[in-house]
Fold this protein.
Amino acid sequence: MRHLVNIAMLAAVLAALVSGCRPTTEPEGTTQPPVFLFTPGDSQLQVTPETHVDFQVRTEPEGPTETRWLVDGQEQATGPRFRYFATHLGSQVVQVESRQSDRQSAFQWDVEVQLAPGEGPGFLPSASYLELPLTGEQLFEVVVPGQLELSYLWSLNGVAVGDSGSYTYLAATEGLDTLRVDVGGLAEPLENQWLVMTGGLWDNVHYSPVQAQQHLVETQGLSFLVMGTASGTDIGWFRNGEAVAHGDRYEYLAGSSPVDSVRVVMSKEGESREHAWTVTVDPLGTYPPAATGIRDLVYGELAGQVRITWAGASIGVFPVADYTVLFSHEGPINAENQALALCAGPAPHLGAGVIHSMTLGPEHGLELGGDIWLAVQTRDTAGQISQDLYNYSFSSVATWAVSGRVTDIQGKPLAGVQIRDTRTGLQVLTDDTGQYLVGPFSPGVNTRVQVGIVQSYHSDWAWYGCTSDTLDVDSAMPLDVVLPEKLRSDENCDDYGSDFLTYFRYMTRTSRASALRPNQRLYHWDSYPVRVYVPEGDSWYGLDMQAEARWAMALWNRQLGGEPIFQETGNPTEAQLVWDFTAGLSNSNGQVALLEPSDQAYGLGDVIPQLMRVWIDPELEEQQRVRETMLHELGHTLGLYRHSLCNSAGYLMYITAAGALNQGEENAIHQDELRAVRAIRGLPQGVDMGGYEGANY
């Protein structure tokens, strides 16, 4: 049967070249534009040196393509495949540009070439401090894995001395030298530094901190250090004259004394040397830690919860230890009332600028449903707390629910429709007015709602169900739903599986996205009846085209029933639809063009129409052919944007409408087409047709 349909479609295309219509925004036939598929699918790639990545582009359906490959803007190859070799560390951009017929596409990959963990360069010697006698030599090296091409810059006391992978140091003078190497060609710069001590017994001795006067806060610590002493030197440390340590380091901790004296005494081979520092100590509390503010607040997964985030505070005199979250239902928190605020924590400090988070709930005393003020308090390792408090306030919601009304396409309320929350399985039914309410939910969760799941045809309860978009506390209310009646399409055309919704979505171009409509939303006239301007005009064979257009609109109005869908106006400037009988505008019998909006090359169904033009060829000779063409083109203006897939069912909207009036005026427009236009008019503007259930046949 499928082969027979394809033969029929081919015959129809040939017939259309002679007598069919072609909307300006819908290509004839069944040929679909190619889809370009790119491999790898991930646009962000990480590889190691001396490896390769295979890139490929192909199309569905397959066909000849012109493809070129570029790396950092420079063309490297042509053809459907390209092998990229990672020869250098760093970032590169791989681009592909591909064309098939009049369709083209492009894709881009960001390739980051990095060393694997543990494969970075090493340094010899590994010790960062060395002692050498005068005229002594020492070889310093950068150990590189594999065959990486790196750059080097050696500097001695800030002066460049070499650019290879190694450097030989000569101890020419007494003193402390600083040798440094900077390694380039890696993803990030790398450097290493050595201190080399040369010379006499005391000439190379250095002290840390360098400044003799130090200023600290009570309980704050400080390391005192002697560097460059000869091996075997005896080193003793004294605090306010009392011996406190032995060795090259003393760990000082400030106490309550406002001034301390720290002295180091060194002796070797009967010679001695000493050095002293004075430490001024301020009382604890003089320098409290920095404050931080709440960055964001969202509702939690469970009812009554909120989750807050903040950035870690900067380091003060003492390291930051942790944070406490203060909150109040009474008003802003300040230094005077912070002791009365509720609190949660502590949360450990993770680093300055690092995002921290905490979830608050009823167990902390939090009560949602009103105004709440929150602040974060910083505590350092000395036990000091931040003095400033940055309040964050919000009006909280305890719970939320989904509510709305369910109607048919005529606006009549539907009672007893099942509403189901997909997250919890909770179900309710609409009341006699079509109203429903399902919930409550925590403000921190989102859900989707299924409406009216009924799987039978030709019964009192035969409606296509639908599933909503994801809903949350900000987008849920109200959710009004329109359900189309579940029907079978004409069984003489099996291209739609005998399902009306399948037929409807194909004809309205909502079965898939389009180039300028990246979704499956239904767009139609914003208001009805559509205002139409019909100019005077005759065909080449004497037919009154104005009268024929009025006849076609009247037939559509009569067949649809109810309020007219077309209404003529004598003012072309206020018209939404304009007839045109000018010769030579197209090579088909009739054509519909979307004139407004015109900011992009929209096709029929891509956007809410504001102005359309219906063109009819004045060279048509027979009155019946003129009328059939007019009826067909009006169908396009009403939302039947595509051509029917087969002509065996007698569809007016087949690619050629020839013969539609053979069975009389009342049978010219197929019942499926009338039902589809009624559904288009009754469904909400912009409704997502992808949310409606498919047929169960």
The helical segments are 2-19, 500-507, 545-560, 623-637, 671-682. Confidence is low (pLDDT under 50) at residues 1-30. The chain is about 10% helix and 35% strand. The CA atoms of residues 144 and 271 lie 45 Å apart.
